[in-house]
Write a structure and sequence with these properties.
By secondary structure, the protein is of the alpha+beta class. About 40% of the residues lie in helices and about 20% in strands. Strand 17 (about 615), helix 23 and strand 18 form a beta-alpha-beta unit. Bound molecules: 2-(butylsulfanyl)adenosine.
Length: about 675
């Protein structure tokens, strides 16, 4: 860089530094101390200014810039990296007796030297290891098999409680180990959002945390609001650990807190087994008040010098042990069974029980899953049911308390008609549950169908949520999905919802406009939006590609449907049964009248890329590699593996191979970015 340029850049460099420091400071206060020092608006202004400067001057964009907190990198695959120090696991037990044995053995092995234990929470999440060099985060790895983990650095940078640079004094080179957890509140709202968008919810916060760390898009990971709880400092073996604060585990954690790590305050130094036991007993009850899940208590010898003396077993240290909480279990009498009918007509029996306190909440209801579940537990009228609450939030029925069984108790009778519409229930062969076949006029199924139709991956009519749909339904304005397209703004204005709000002019306009915009949704998504049983997003795409038009699909035989890749007999029958229903055929006809896409060719316009050959390299933000290739072919283009004189374009993603770039430049082949490509197919 020449002198002139350097001087030119200096004020920008200064501003970047100033903004970074300010934003880091605000982030620290927000994530560590729950304090907002500026309004969201001001914060976004500063962040946007920094993002702009870094875009204009990529050379000033540092790997730990606070802009990395919002993500943006794409992880096509996670690089496997060997841990510098293996990530050991802990011996664990559900038995207090074994904790007593551990304590006695430790005391015997240590002998005369005075020592203490630390007791802390065992976080129920995903273990990761963060490497810091000279106070900067340089790498984040998952535990993997303990020897090799996945490099998740760009996702880890989006977690607010992971410091990107350390404060005050710190060791030059060390690893901070801890657990990434998904706090309950954020987890529940994320799961609700998934349900609203028609995706499967995660079973528990741990699975969701693990899935989030492995997201390809770090921007998506940033939205998940994960939290890092630090529990261990791993230092290179040549460091002198005989002086404070490195000589005890608790002093190391206190020090780590000063460096900017989130170290939970629930840690206690214990002198003997009684103190350990009372810590365990306390948290077995109090755990339900925490904002995140724990599954036990970890007990460690506090004096680091003793660790070496105690040594390791095959895979865990002898100076620490984990006590795991048992699931809490109570029993309560069954009072009645309610039956819920879901969006697809599946019936779920729910036990109503006498209210009983379990893990900090009062339980009144729990799912009985399906008829087979009831039969396998042999549930009788007035039985007492055992309910358990484990690491998951939702209490589960796990058995019958036979001490309360009445001598002449009758097996519970399962319903044979839909509780919502009275239609006789059906049970498909080999399936555990019953369903209501009245898809056209069973109210929860009608509502579910409408909600699915407008959902993001279907027609994406985002101004209509569940509440508004119910209002349109209850007012008789929308009964089936085709009715959306005959709504008029005058019908909407003044309609009220439960929350008390009424639809005003602006909202009515927005609803009508979103419905009109949905006319451009391609055929494959229209097909998905119809909500045919077993036809998901991918299945709809495959069917649309195969038949190319609604007319061809309506005329398809079972054999033809079975020709479609990945479509089996169950799905083929579901498609046939859907389109043989006169009401559904009429709905499809009205949707066509309304102007929805009913042909694949309408989207691809045959061949906007006809005659063009593409070479694809690198990773993309909006497409997987296969998707971008599919998209090229769908638009009539060809994909080739290597660059030659016949190549029309090199479609270049992130981390593209340098050889391909060189060759394309040499042959003068134009290079397209992902957004160039998107513009090309849109025009
Ligand atoms: S200490 C060598 N402390 O529990 C010591 N582990 O098998 C390493 N865990 O996978 C672990 N909370 O991810 C430690 N406060 C805590 C912990 C904790 C959760 C996890 C850890 C490990 C497993 C133990």
């Amino acid at each position: 860089m020449d002198l002139f340029n350097y001087q030119d850049l200096e004020p920008v460099r200064q501003r970047v530094k100033e903004l970074s420091n300010l934003i880091d400071h605000y982030n620290y206060e927000y994530y560590m101390n729950d304090r907002s020092l500026v309004s969201d608006y001001e914060f976004d202004q500063l962040l946007n200014e920094l993002i702009c400067l870094e875009k204009q001057h990529p050379e000033l964009s540092l790997p730990n810039s606070p802009t990395r907190r919002v993500g943006g990198e794409v992880n096509k695959s996670f690089r496997q990296v060997a841990h510098r120090f293996p990530m050991l696991s802990l011996g664990n037990t559900y038995s207090i007796g074994e904790i007593e044995d551990f304590e006695a053995r430790t005391r015997r092995l240590i002998g005369e030297t005075p020592f203490t234990y630390t007791c802390e929470l065992k976080y129920d999440g995903v273990a990761i290891s963060l490497t810091y060099k000279n106070g900067e985060l340089v790498q984040a790895l998952t535990r993997g098999n303990g020897a090799v983990g996945d490099d998740i650095t760009s996702n880890a940078r989006t977690i607010g409680t992971i410091p990107l640079h350390l404060r005050g004094d710190y060791p030059d080179d060390f690893e901070a180990r801890g657990e990434v957890v998904y706090p309950f509140e954020a987890f529940e709202s994320f799961n609700q959002q998934r349900i609203d968008e028609g995706d499967e919810p995660f079973a528990n916060p741990r699975n969701a945390a693990s899935g989030s760390l492995k997201l390809q898009s770090s921007a998506e990971c940033a939205k998940r609001k994960l939290m890092f709880c630090m529990y261990f400092m791993m230092l290179p073996s040549d460091i002198d650990v005989s002086r404070p604060p490195l000589d005890t585990h608790s002093a190391r954690l206190d020090w780590a807190r000063q460096m900017g790590f989130k170290v939970q305050p629930y840690i206690k130094e214990c002198a003997n087994i009684q103190e350990i036991k009372s810590f365990i007993d306390y948290w077995d009850e109090a755990r339900w008040q925490l904002p995140f899940a724990i599954d036990g208590i970890v007990i460690k010898v506090n004096q680091v010098a003793l660790w070496e003396q105690l040594g390791l077993t095959a895979k865990s240290p002898r100076w620490a042990i984990a006590y795991k909480f048992k699931a809490q279990r109570v029993s309560s009498p069954l009072q009645s069974i309610s039956y819920q009918v879901g969006r697809t007509g599946i019936v779920t029996p729910v036990a109503n029980m006498a209210p009983v306190s379990l893990g900090g909440t009062v339980v009144r209801r729990a799912t009985l899953n399906n008829a087979d579940f009831i039969r396998s537990l042999d549930i009788r009228e007035h039985d007492w049911l055992f309910i358990e609450k484990g690491g998951e939030i939702i209490p589960k029925i796990v058995g019958i308390d036979s001490t309360h069984r009445l001598p002449d108790a009758r097996p519970v009778a399962y319903i044979d008609r839909c509780p919502e519409c009275g239609t006789p229930l059906v049970r498909a062969e080999g399936e555990a549950g019953h369903y209501c076949p009245n898809q056209d006029s069973c109210p929860p199924q009608q509502l579910g169908r409408l909600e699915h139709f407008v959902s993001r991956k279907a027609m994406n009519i985002d101004t209509l949520g569940a509440e508004r749909i119910k209002m349109l339904f209850d007012n008789g304005l929308v009964r089936d999905v085709a009715d959306f397209y005959s709504l008029r703004r005058e019908q909407l204005i003044g309609l009220g919802v439960d929350s008390g709000a009424t639809i005003q002019d602006r909202s009515a306009d927005n609803i009508i406009e979103a419905i009109r915009n949905s006319l451009s949704v391609p055929f494959e998504r229209v097909l998905f939006a119809l909500g045919i049983r077993y036809v998901g997003e991918v299945g709809a795409k495959k069917i649309a590609r195969y038949f190319k038009s609604m007319d061809a699909l309506l005329a398809a035989s079972r054999d033809e449907l079975l020709q479609v890749e990945d479509i089996g007999e169950v799905t083929a029958d579901a498609v046939l049964s859907f389109f043989s229903d006169p009401h559904q055929r009429e709905v499809v006809f009205r949707l066509r009248e309304a102007g929805l896409h009913m042909n694949l060719t309408e989207v691809s316009q045959g061949a906007s890329l006809q005659g063009l050959t593409f070479v694809v390299s690198g990773v993309f933000e909006h497409f997987s590699r296969d998707e971008i290739k599919e998209s090229i072919e769908l638009h009539g283009g060809k994909v080739s593996g290597s660059i030659s004189g016949k190549t029309s374009y090199l479609l270049a993603g992130d981390k593209m191979g340098p050889e391909k770039l060189k060759k394309a430049e040499k042959l003068g082949i134009p290079i397209l970015s992902e957004s160039d490509y998107e513009n090309m197919i849109q025009s």
